[in-house]
Amino acid sequence: MKKITTAMFLCLFFSIGVYSWELGVIGGNISNPSHLNYGLSSGFGFLIPLVKFEVELTRQTNIEDPGFPNAITGGIKFRPTFGRYMPYAVVGIGAEFKRFSLDRDKYDSFTFIGGGIHYKMMAVFSIRADLRFLNFTGFNRTRLTAGLFFHI
């Protein structure tokens, strides 16, 4: 009975609540100091059509100790659609770390604001260009990325 109830809840949740989902691979450059970065980005929308929630997992290359090569971010996007073009603004929080841990001392947290544009090449594929300003305690970084996304 629990499995049936859970399955029915998930079907109802995804049919009514979630109206869109996107998954993509991203890559680009992050400044201060300059490093290449790459990762995965996922976004999903609920009842409000112009608002999406986003989670990204990224990794920076050639980080020297005591740097943090991995990052996770979560943000809220405002993204209207104009035909094939989907510009957006995003604001959120994130953390850089070496290895996943529950110890707060092993993270460097930040806030970010940015924007970008998706261009739909087909109904389910888009390319994205993105610029974000990361605000750490005591210093700032700029991140410029591009990516390929799949939309459901």
Structural summary, described in words:
The structure is a single chain. The protein is mainly β and 152 residues long. It has a single domain, classed as Porin. The protein has one helix and eight strands, in the order αββββββββ. The chain has one helix at residues 2-17; strands at 20-30, 35-45, 51-60, 70-78, 85-97, 107-120, 125-136, 140-151. The protein has an eight-stranded antiparallel β-barrel. A hairpin with a 5-residue loop joins strand 2 (35-45) and strand 3. The longest helix is centred in the first third of the chain and has 16 residues, at 2-17. It is globular. The mean pLDDT is 86.
Q: Using the 3D structure, state the CATH architecture.
A: Beta Barrel
Q: What are the secondary-structure elements, in order, as H or E?
A: HEEEEEEEE
Just give the CATH class.
Mainly Beta
CATH third-level topology: Porin
Query: What is the strand tally?
Result: 8
Biggest pleated-sheet summary: 8 strands, antiparallel, barrel
Distance between the termini: 30 Å
Structural class: mainly beta
Low-confidence stretches: none
Residue share in helix: 10-25%
**What is the molecular shape?**
globular
The Rg value, from CA coordinates, equals 17 Å
Which short descriptors sum up this protein?
single chain, mainly beta, Porin, eight-stranded antiparallel barrel, 1 helix, 61% strand
Give the topology.
Elements: H1 2-17, E1 20-30, E2 35-45, E3 51-60, E4 70-78, E5 85-97, E6 107-120, E7 125-136, E8 140-151
Antiparallel strand pairs: 1-2, 1-8, 2-3, 3-4, 4-5, 5-6, 6-7, 7-8
